[in-house]
Write a structure and sequence with these properties.
Layout: H1 2-12, E1 32-39, E2 48-55, E3 58-63, E4 73-76, E5 81-84, E6 86-91, H2 102-110, E7 114-119, H3 127-134, E8 141-149, E9 164-166, H4 170-180, E10 187-191, H5 208-220, E11 224-228, H6 232-240, E12 245-247, H7 257-265, E13 269-271, H8 274-277, H9 281-284, H10 292-313, H11 333-345, H12 349-363, E14 381-384, E15 398-403, E16 406-409, E17 427-428, E18 432-434, E19 450-453, E20 461-468, E21 474-481, E22 489-495, E23 504-505, E24 511-518, E25 520-528, E26 531-539, E27 544-549, E28 554-558, E29 571-579, E30 585-596
Parallel strand pairs: 1-4, 1-5, 6-7, 7-8, 8-9, 8-10, 10-11, 11-12, 12-13, 17-23
Antiparallel strand pairs: 1-2, 2-3, 5-14, 14-15, 15-16, 18-30, 19-22, 20-21, 21-30, 22-29, 24-27, 24-30, 25-26, 25-29, 26-28
Length: 598
Amino acid sequence: MVARTLAMLSGALVALAIAGSPLSAQSSEKTIAITNAMIFDATGREPYRGHVVIRDGRIEAVGPDVAVPKGATIIRANGKALLPGFFDVHTHWSQGGSPATLPQIATAYVSSGVTTVNDFHQQPEAFAPKRAWLQGLAAPHVNFVARISTPGGHGADWADTNTTKWVATAESARRAMAELQPYKPDHIKVFTDGWRYGQLPEETSMNVETLTALTGEAHKYGQRVLTHTVTVGRGQIAAAANVDVIAHSIQDAPLDEATIAAIKAAGTFYAPTLAIYQLKPDEIGPNRKDDPATRQRIRKWGYAQDNLRKLAAAGVPVAVGTDAGIGGARHGFSTLQEMELMVDAGLSPKAALLAGTATSAQALGVLEDRGTIEKGKRADLVLIDGIPWKAISDVHKIDQVLIDGKTVFGKGVKLPVGNQATALPAMPAAALIDDFERTDGRSALDTLRLADMDGGVERSAVIANRVPRAEGGSALAVAVQMAPKDKPEGGVLVPLSRGSVTPVDARRFAGVQLDLRGSGTYDVVINTLAGEWTAKVEASQAWSQVRLPFSAFSAKRSRDGLGRSWRGDDLLEVGVVTQREGGSAAWGEIDNLRFYAD
């Protein structure tokens, strides 16, 4: 374990972008002194009363007898608790979360004292533009995590291979890791376990040879591997493959001593994400006592709690992760709740706080940089009006939060304008979206095309290839083998900006135009910040030019309620998708996809 840790340190101490604008009268260049605090430094030392001096965003001195520099900006703690900033090693900054947009999510985390997170939700193309976006916000340090699954596995059941890599062998795992490196992922999330919580059809799982090769490659690049692991058997494989963090609770059965010993010997951390699994009153009420699904949830919850206790008692290091952004797990709040749930499961409040600070920092390879209150560490700090090491519920009593020595939450703190926005400002839409002349899979806008198909265990297969046109140039041929289920679909989407992050304003145009040939009915799709809009067209085997005014599109799926009127300044993607009978095949060719003006 020591050798592995030392080998990874060179690639593990990268701190990502956070707020770039002044948030209050103080800045990281000034000297700051937090005086008379009860300091829980997360080193194992008992809390003590003392002072912390911060200069240039880092802790210059800490202790009971530290002298306060003359001219320093004073934060008077008056006996409040001072802790390192909290970590959440498992989040999804997704539209499904509450709140939903990147600035709202960032604000939710900093107001909860969460100063470092892993985001598992972005396609690699989105990493760079989202890192740039975060520069203008008050935000935690965000690690962007690339996803890898198996064909037909969890994670591959809703995303294409440009969003989640699909691997099935050691060779394909090594190739996928090399393909991801230009995006500079901070860590790797691997869906290794096809047991979908015992409630859905089981999907494919990753074998130990593939996972071992993948983990070895990630470590060469200085990246940690976090796995989706929810069964005892897959926990054994995770340990054998030397993964860094088991994400999610092992919940299909009680852990045996041999598996616990293997996980501990591998130096693997455990992030149980209890917040996503906790039982809710409406799920376990008296009217559901005889429901098989309810009995199963109760049984799995018991396994999750018991297995956490066993692992912690055996000395397996426990980290904090929540799966926030999925289901009902709320950003920020769930991180604090996770520590409460750990205490409910049997950990002490001190152990839960260590899980949310130093141990999570160690799990991500950044303990030399943050996670404790020590000289030289990053000044990511949380001031709490309570005694959370005695009453863990006090973690919710956040008084002030500092990231890199800047106060990002507290009385009188004014956040950057970017935190009040719901999206980046739209950029003008270009007329040409894609003429399919590039040979590298990218559009005329230099964006990476995405396959769009139905979700689920059985998915339609989409193959897109450039083909020559008799008239000259190239078109995109799309073939779809429809899944054997109701309403299967498949097609291609073209992002209008890198990673579909920055919306485009197409209001100077009248609609969408394309050359199309094929057989049957197709949907021309426009994805926007508000949701999905579609217009149906008929195609024949002869090429035809199709013009669809924006007024021809109707809302199909919405992120904030159907019926919202068309805006035209929030477009993200344009594409063509077709729906056919289950088990059938479809084909089509498209060219010269563009916006047209009157």
